[in-house]
Structures are given as structure tokens and as C-alpha cells.
Amino acid sequence: MSASSERSVVLPEDLHARPAGALVRVAARFRSTVEVVFGEKKANARSVLAVMALNATAGSTVLVRADGEDAEQAAEAIVSVLAH
Known about the structure:
alpha+beta; 4-stranded antiparallel beta sheet
């Protein structure tokens, strides 16, 4: 069974190497495909370079999309990482 989930989050800090690395480590725990969207840019949540290339800054809103059998849990976990 496949599911999808979308969540938005306001970033408390720039999405630089450290938070991008934490996001990638969390995304790797799930089977679902997870994507982070900022403006017109999209990034696979399993790629540190792709996430950093979004150039998302503190105070901006990003959208987290997850598709797969554990989409709800994956989206929640990614939002939790981004929100802290």
C-alpha cells in the first residue's frame, strides 16, 4: 500500500550542512521517497548536496512531501528535524 503526506514548516535556521546532514540521516530510515520543496526548487531528502542547494534560509517555509508505505511517519520525522 502506498500513501503520501505533505507538511510545511518554517525554518528556525538556514538549511546549511549540519541540518541538511541531520535531515538526510533521518530520511534514510524510511522506505518512502521524501522530497523537500522550497519555492520552485525540489530536493531528494536523501541528498545532502541537493538539500543544501535549495538555499532555504531561516524564517522561510519549506514543504516536505513523502510518498510510500511509511509516508506519514517520514514526513513527521523530517518536519521534526527541520523545526529544531
